[in-house]
User: Fold this.
Amino acid sequence: MKIVVPPTTLPRVEGMKPRYRVGDTLKATCTSKNSKPAANLTWGLNGNILDSEYIKKISVKIEPETNLETATSTLSMELQRHHFSASGRLKLKCTASIHNIYWRTSENSAEEERPKAAVVAAQDYRLHDVFRKPIDLFCGWYEGIAIFKNCSAFMNDKEQAFVSWGYAKNWESNAVPVYANAWNISYNGDIFGFVPTGNGHYLFRIYTKNRRHNPFATEDIILDPSLCSLTTSDVSLMQKWWMQRKNQKNCPEAVIKYNWSGKNGEWRIVYKWIEGSDKTVSDVFYKFKSNGQEYKIIHWEIDVPKKLVSYTTNPIRINDENAWSLTLNKAESWGFQPAGDSGQWIFRHFSSK
Assistant:
């Protein structure tokens, strides 16, 4: 019989600063003390589990006085725009677990350090507001247009993002993404605001009139080609971004991180295409809601030049979960299929190649 001694305290997270900017390096250490065996430590940021590429050091020390074990994990990652929430928050979690017996989490938070001037939305964007004469003096309602001037080289010859509005006109806009911080300004008694919703999408709001507009509701979008990693739960956005990366071939490695909630657990897929070798590498993870444990259930690699496909699986039983399939294009489609009532399952790759 194997005896498990769980930690008597929560895991401890140290080293996190109160504020960060895009481009800063987030460094933190998580420690879980006095257990046997040592706890397994995993990191999460704003609800997403972080990949092992950000874990720089894992160590286990035996305490001489108790003969129990202390586990330490060190995290280091360069923060990008998508790491921050829409409200500019970072919620860093460290979870300590031992088999399916022990599971505890500690969380630290930080805020994004934003520009002080409202007219500067981000490093490469400036906001230009043009207000016209009142249409209706009784309503006090003005026409206006907000133009997001992207100063980066990518947008030099391309259409800039804009939103226009008015009392006697419909909203007008285009669907050019804006990677900028939230802001609001006041003019002539009205308050206007920009609210990012992720991946360059945003809402434009007129708070004093209780109106808002989503430029991406029906229009096609222009995606920034400098982004080589996308974290999303939007399938259509993922498909479009993936095909642009493979057609433009401007990323040495293009990575999709797709996650969603299943019936009894959380699914997470990390799908990577290596442009130089034309190789696809993918991992599928499943996290049980019952105990918080996450497992990598399958890893596969597709080597197109050699016409080879290899699989590594983890025979974890997944009970009472719905089947699903995911399609990026005709040549890249795969899915999960339950096989009976005993938690067994089949993973299928529907590639036409």
